[in-house]
Each structure stands twice: as structure tokens, then as C-alpha cells.
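Q: How would the C-alpha cells look for this protein?
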Amino acid sequence: MPRDRAALGAFLRSRRDRLTPAQAGVQAFPGPRRVPGLRREELSLLAGVSPDYYSRLEQGRQANVSLEVLDALSRALRLDAVESAHLRDLAAPAPRRRSVPDRGQRPDPGLLRLVANLDHRPVLLLGRRGEVLARNALLRSVLGRPMEPGSSLVRYLFFDPTARERIVNWADFAATTVASLRREAARRPHDTTLRALIDELRAGDEDAARWWDDQTVRDYTSVAKQIQHPTAGPLSFDIEIVVPPHDPDQHLIVYTTPTDSPTARVLGLLASWDADVPVPLRHGGRPETRK
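A: Here is the predicted structure in C-alpha cell form.
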């Protein structure tokens, strides 16, 4: 079974399992139930497709799926906008999926200027797969790690023990990261480097494996972050994400806090203790070192 069709079937089953007949607004079919949510026959009735056709979808035996059927399934399964887009990506015809060389990313100049000018708040510029393209000194101070360009925010979250120690709500933040990787994997099925990263996470961290298997999908999204800094004490941030319209594979992550908050007052002290400039990647993916 092709990997994309296997992923399509797994996602459909997971969304079907979470939705009961009562929640879907349909009368449950009689007889003993062996599934926690909708039966295949109940979902096929809601979506207006034959049970045999829907079974082929879940089993990965249906080569092509029309947008009309995908939209009907999205409505029947009560999918949100991100989940609906994810479903369409998983069902995309195979000819649209081709391997392309990964030449690395160069940080967007406009976003890089924002990183340099937002020195009063922690700022991080991420590329594909959660790769660090740039960051400011305050971000490094808050997280307690260099986070140099070319490093991986994802690997920091799951394989650096200080992430769990310093990020109080680590589980919320890390689970959202896994859900975002699932969304990215569906958009970029040809990205073997991304697939290797996901395999590494699933093999190396039980939490990551569990969150991946539950099929939750998210776009990169704002998540509040609580930090326990060893010197500055508790810090509280809202995370805002800026995506340039011409390059959706870059995300500017800004740690925001009210100007009169205790966190804002402490950030001024942290900024005075540790200062440098954002360091972009060289062309070709190798970081510059600049003091």
C-alpha cells in the first residue's frame, strides 16, 4: 500500500473513531458495536458514498478521490479547516508528488530585519522542519541554549533535557509541535529529511510517538508558554506567529507579553546580561558565526 494512501486511511479511521452517532446527528445502526465511534456504514451514509467505496478509501485501495467526496467526508466527520486541508493533501494524486532537491533555506530579509529590531522580546525565525534560521540574544537567554542557525527546535524540545525542565507547559507545546509536523509531512510528502526527523522522534521519545499515533493535526499556531528561568524566575509569554505570504515555509515566532507585566520588566534585565545579533544561515545551509 502506498504510504500516502496508508496515511489517508489511518487519518480517516482516527476521525471516525472519535465521532459517535449522536455527535454526528445520525441514528446508530442496530447490533453490537466494535468501534468507539461511527461505523463505516454510518459514515458512508452521512457522506453520501457507498460503503464499499468508503471501505476502499480506508484500506488504501482507492487510487483517486474527488474533491466533492473529500468535502462530504470533511462535513460528515466534523473536521475543522486544518483537518480538511490535511485530508485533501493526503488524498492528492500521486503524480503531483515528486522528489525535489533540498537546497536549504535562506532567511527572508524582511523577517531578518524584524528579528534584529525586536530586541526587547525573544524572537525566533524558523524554516522547514523547525530548523532555526535566526534568533535574537533574548531568545537564547530565555531558553538557555544557543539555538544557533542550522540547529533544530524540534530536537531541542524532545532530546534536550533542559527543555522539559525550563518549559513549564512542555507537554502542551511539544504535542502541538508534533501535530504541526504531521501537517507539514502531508504538504511535503517528498521531503525525505522531514520523514527521517519524524522517524527519529518516534523512535527516540515515547511522548512524540504517542502524539504522532493519535493523528492530531495542526498548523503552526500560537501557544502560551510558561518558562521557569533559573535566575529570572517564572516568565509568561503568548506566542505569536508571523508567516510571510510569499514564503509560507518560514515562521517568525515572537514571544509577547504586556509591557507592564512582571515578565516584561525581567526581560529588560535579561537583555542587559546577554546581547548579540541574529545570525542568518549561509547560502547552502551552513551557519555563519558572527560575534
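Residues 109-273 form a domain with the Beta-Lactamase fold (CATH 3.30.450.180).

The chain has two domains: 3-96, 109-273.

Upvote if useful.
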